[in-house]
Amino acid sequence: MIVEFVELVLATRPDINAKEKEASNTPLHSAASAGNTTVRKLLLDRGASIDLPNVTNHTALHLAVLEDHLETAKLLLDHKFSPKKPALFESPVLHYAANEGKSELIAPLIEAGADPEARNSHGDRALHFAARKGHTDFVEQLFTAVPNLDPNSQDVDGKTALHSAAIAGHLEAVRLLQDRGAQQEIPESSKNLAIHYAAWDGHVEVIEQLVSDDNTNVRGYNGRTLLSIIALRGHNNRTLWLLRKTCYARVGR
């Protein structure tokens, strides 16, 4: 029924790219957001512009990824939509796919011209977004698609993807990044290593994964060592046990 209504309206030759007042969405934005395959195809066949931004600078492709309508996203890419077009904070669509863990979109986006090394206004790349959310499948497939991807690229604050994973306590992402060459000795602009962030929030498994003779006494923000941070934060018994195991035991070596 809805197809008949849409065809009836389209027969009157309306402005197919007319934008709403508040959100500035076009009909294609709305169809992409709702995942309405039939209406979306009708609009595209009638010449709807696929790269118009709404008030938040999102295109129909951004909305399709955000709303988990992968078939819609792939159809838009088939219509030669440029995946390089940025939205909020200058983030291209690949960043949105990384943030949502949509690894199925890596290949079609890169094939359509997406740059896996592209940065947003904060210097984040797709790898930062996926690591921050713990989307290990996305991280793995991104490295598979781009074998020479730099695992140690830093954002404007000096944080690497390893920092991002450690901050959020994503152990498997930390392990995967290390397997791909991520270096835990890289400090960010406040001099904190990834392990310092893990210690600050009590991510015990991540601390166990990262701790070594080389970083136990490294001073981060305000000159704090790993021992200082754990003592300051006063985490649970398991963290304190780790503190004794990894720090005190080293004194007797």
Brief write-up:
It comes from Lepraria finkii. Keywords: ANK repeat, Repeat. This protein has 253 residues and is an all-alpha fold.
CATH superfamily heading of the largest domain: Ankyrin repeat-containing domain
Kindly identify the CATH topology of the largest domain: Serine Threonine Protein Phosphatase 5, Tetratricopeptide repeat
Shape summary = elongated
- Determine the number of helices (DSSP H or I, runs of at least 4 residues): 15
Our estimate of the beta-strand percent is under 5%
The helix fraction, in percent, is 40-55%
Oligomer: single chain
Please give a structural write-up.
This protein has 253 residues and is an all-alpha fold. It folds into 3 domains: 81 residues, Alpha Horseshoe (Serine Threonine Protein Phosphatase 5, Tetratricopeptide repeat); 98 residues, Alpha Horseshoe (Serine Threonine Protein Phosphatase 5, Tetratricopeptide repeat), CATH 1.25.40.20; 59 residues, Serine Threonine Protein Phosphatase 5, Tetratricopeptide repeat, CATH 1.25.40. Helix content is 51%, strand content 0%. It has 15 helices and no strands. The radius of gyration is 23 Å and the shape is elongated. The C terminus is likely disordered.
